[in-house]
Amino acid sequence: MSAQSKQSPQPVQPSASDAATSTVDAVMSAAPVIPVIVVNDADRAVPLAQALVRGGITSLEITLRTPAGLEAIRTVAAEVPQARVGAGTVLSPADVEACAEVGATFLVSPGTTPALLDAMVASGLAVLPGVSGPAELMSVLERGLTRAKLFPASVVGGPAMLRALGGPFPDVRFCPTGGVSPSNARDYLSLGNVACVGGSWLTPRDAVEAGDWDHIEELARRAAALRP
Ligand code: 3PG
């Protein structure tokens, strides 16, 4: 038997569609910052999203870290048409399915596993899988994805890491998240391979709980002006 005939067929992995890639580009280019939102009360999600949109921030990541997350995505998707609402903290294929059902436009994960990546791609939604370095990024690239979240950005090397990744992976565009703030966001946004950053600072817990939408609008307005 020749060496060639012994090879077993390569598994066919799902690969990202052009439509999903162009949607993720629209999500990343809408504004310099994607807010990472934790909602404890789904009823607050709509006024919160409207405040962010008024401030010029239209791609919104609502995390699945609270039981209210999925319902918040559903109501914002239905009631705030100016926003592109995505799901964050997507950890499993079951999460992917639940997010698709409630109308999420995009999916963000803090890291990757083969099963999660396959489910994200198979959903046909725009995706920003989380990577912390080259090995995870290569699994992402194997599935035809060239957009990723770098997480936790400030811990895994910050702007220096992104510059280093730009050598072997010049076509990848990142959304660094984790430790990004108004004081360092421009250090990231000035890099050619950074399309936007993510962060929780636009939606401080006390302001959300107090319903201080004017303050959140103002934080959004400042974030929208961050492009270097
Ligand atoms: C995330 O999940 O992306 C982070 O929790 C957001 O990080 P930050 O709170 O440092 O902005």
UniProtKB/TrEMBL annotation:
Protein species of origin: Actinomyces urogenitalis DSM 15434
Enzyme Commission designation: 4.1.2.14
Lineage: Bacteria, Bacillati, Actinomycetota, Actinomycetes, Actinomycetales
Subunit structure: Homotrimer.
Single GO molecular function: 2-dehydro-3-deoxy-phosphogluconate aldolase activity
Pathway linked to the protein: Carbohydrate acid metabolism; 2-dehydro-3-deoxy-D-gluconate degradation; D-glyceraldehyde 3-phosphate and pyruvate from 2-dehydro-3-deoxy-D-gluconate: step 2/2
Similarity-based family: Belongs to the KHG/KDPG aldolase family.
Protein name per its UniProtKB record: 2-dehydro-3-deoxy-phosphogluconate aldolase
CDD domains recorded: KDPG_aldolase (cd00452)
Keywords: Carbohydrate metabolism, Lyase
Signal peptide: none
